[in-house]
Write a structure and sequence with these properties.
The longest helix is centred in the last third of the chain and has 24 residues. This protein has two domains: about 190 residues, 4-Layer Sandwich (Metallo-beta-lactamase, Chain A); about 110 residues, no CATH class. The chain has ten helices and 14 strands. Helix 1 links the parallel strand 4 and strand 5. Helix 5 packs antiparallel against helix 6 and helix 9 crosses helix 10.
Length: about 325
């Protein structure tokens, strides 16, 4: 990926390999005036660290030249180097407030989150696969404690101005996801809001009280709002830069609608629980990518229900869905 320059601002992409069909994990150094801003922070691994060091050195920068870190959302492939950087060089870290209990691994919230998924998978009739995932989540409470961000966090929210950016809230893929719009240059650093070669997952999560966030509904709203931005170049968290975002957004919205109608047809055909729908639609990916598959199904069920296309009834603690 090439260096991008426009009106005195220069973006130095840091691109490292990524799995799960993501192709690459991208984060960015932005040189603007006397500032050198790091936007997202890659994975907590050798590849991301060496990628950052290589780009700094190649362009005559040092780690201590970084003036701040901006995070689009809390996922580990976007925040991985924050501790390693801030332990060597103390800089402000800016992130949406909803990311804080996740990044700081707040014990009370993480317990609420495990309880949420335990109930959710039970109500979706996920059986053994759901129990396995809950067991994994419980084990990760201790196993992933080292991922806790130790740096101080400065909260930022939609509508605020920060340096040359307007902060845009784009929940859906993550409840805390934000984008950094530079309207003057028609740029936007958008994390996983938009990925050129694959659809971004709208991942089901609880809010801070343990209630289900309707992630796909939020994502559709965010895509629609994003389409109206005065942006002609999107710096994505994975894959290539996106130079025609409006066209790609239309394609993503159309794909979401087609998927919803496919799920509705399966319900009409008598496949009535979330787990059965997941197994039918994602037979190959069901076990290997269980959380993502269930998020996809549950997101579409929530959207179809909100649109009045289906309804649900609980029987023996399990939700059954019916087409209207």
């Amino acid at each position: 990926m090439q260096i991008v320059e426009r009106d005195g601002h220069t973006v130095y992409p840091i691109v490292v390999p990524a799995g799960y069909g993501l192709e690459t994990c991208n984060f960015y150094l932005l040189e603007h005036g006397e500032r050198l801003t790091l936007i997202d922070a890659g994975m907590p691994d050798k590849s991301s660290w060496e990628g950052l060091m290589e780009v700094l050195e190649k362009n005559n920068f040092h780690l201590h030249d970084i003036t701040e870190i901006l995070l689009t959302h809390h996922h580990i492939d976007h925040v991985g180097l924050v501790n390693q950087i801030t332990e060597k060089h103390s800089v402000p870290v800016y992130v949406h407030p909803l990311a804080t209990p996740r990044l700081k691994r707040d014990a009370q919230f993480l317990k609420i989150r495990v309880d949420f998924f335990e109930q959710l998978y039970r109500e979706m009739n996920c059986g053994n696969q759901g129990e396995k995932q809950v067991h994994y989540l419980k084990a990760s409470l201790e196993k992933n404690e080292h991922q806790k961000l130790t740096a101080d966090i400065t909260p930022i929210q939609g509508g605020m101005s920060l340096f040359d950016f307007t902060i845009i809230e784009v929940p859906g893929h993550a409840p805390d996801q934000i984008a950094f719009e530079d309207e003057g240059r028609q740029w936007c650093f958008a994390g996983d809001q938009l990925i050129k070669h694959i659809s971004s997952n709208a991942i089901v999560e609880p809010d801070l009280e343990g209630n289900r966030i309707q992630s796909l509904i939020d994502y559709k709203k965010s895509l629609t709002a994003f389409k109206d931005l005065n942006v002609d170049l999107v710096f994505s968290g994975h894959g290539e830069l996106i130079d025609n975002p409006k066209q790609l957004i239309e394609a993503r919205l159309e794909k979401i609608e087609k998927k919803s109608q496919k799920i509705k047809k399966l319900i009409k055909d008598g496949i009535l629980t979330g787990n059965e729908l997941a197994q039918q639609l994602y037979e190959r990916q069901y076990e290997k990518q269980f959380p993502l598959v269930m998020s996809e199904i549950i997101g579409h069920l929530d959207a179809l229900e909100a649109e009045g296309q289906i309804e649900k009834r609980m029987k023996s603690g399990v939700w059954y869905y019916y087409a209207i």
